[in-house]
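$ ./design --mode recover --in tokens.txt
reading tokens...
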């Protein structure tokens, strides 16, 4: 019976386990994504995340400490020159485990472990959408704007035409009033002349 089991030994001796995790960490740093079993991925996450945190401080001491874990100059160079810049603003949680199902043969749980800052698809989905103001919400875009402009022009033309028609009607009405006034004056003058003729005839009699 195994009491006080603190971590998964992965069925290997200590040197074998250390060498395996070192190789997996180097592959993850160089390739940014590897496929393995879930048990190994969980053990690798505990192994590699302190190394990634150490790489944020680019000093000779930190490079030597990281090299003691990875034992690969190319990996150390890639970690400090490339990866450390990507993860500089992240306070932790540099890796992501995505389960992919079971492996044929032994039915082991398989997964993909990757560096979070190198998955461009998930980073694009995580970006917040731009807040739209009420004024900028226009259904139809340019076509609707053109339609509204045309409608405004038509309304303006119709109002101008209506004003012209109203002015013409007013002018015609004024002319009619003037003509009626002239006819009334002519009639009044005729009646005055008729009255004068009648008085002259009466005096002649």
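writing sequence...
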């Amino acid at each position: 019976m195994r009491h006080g089991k603190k971590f998964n030994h992965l069925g290997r001796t200590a040197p074998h386990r250390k060498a395996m995790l070192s190789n997996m960490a180097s592959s993850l740093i160089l390739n940014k994504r590897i496929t393995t079993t879930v048990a190994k991925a969980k053990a690798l996450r505990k192994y590699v995340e302190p190394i990634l945190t150490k790489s944020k401080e680019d000093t000779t001491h930190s490079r030597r400490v990281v090299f003691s874990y990875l034992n690969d100059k190319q990996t150390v160079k890639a970690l400090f020159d490339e990866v450390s810049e990507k993860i500089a603003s992240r306070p932790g949680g540099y890796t992501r485990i995505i389960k992919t199902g079971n492996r044929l043969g032994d039915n082991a749980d398989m997964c993909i472990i990757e560096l979070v800052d190198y998955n461009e698809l998930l980073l694009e989905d995580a970006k917040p959408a731009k807040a739209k103001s009420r004024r900028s919400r226009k259904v139809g875009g340019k076509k609707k704007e053109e339609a509204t402009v045309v409608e405004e022009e038509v309304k303006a033309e119709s109002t101008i035409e209506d004003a012209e028609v109203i002015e013409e009607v007013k002018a015609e009405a004024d002319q009619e009033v003037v003509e009626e006034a002239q006819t009334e004056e002519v009639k009044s003058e005729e009646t005055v002349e008729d009255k004068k003729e009648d008085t002259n005839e009466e005096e002649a009699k």
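exit 0
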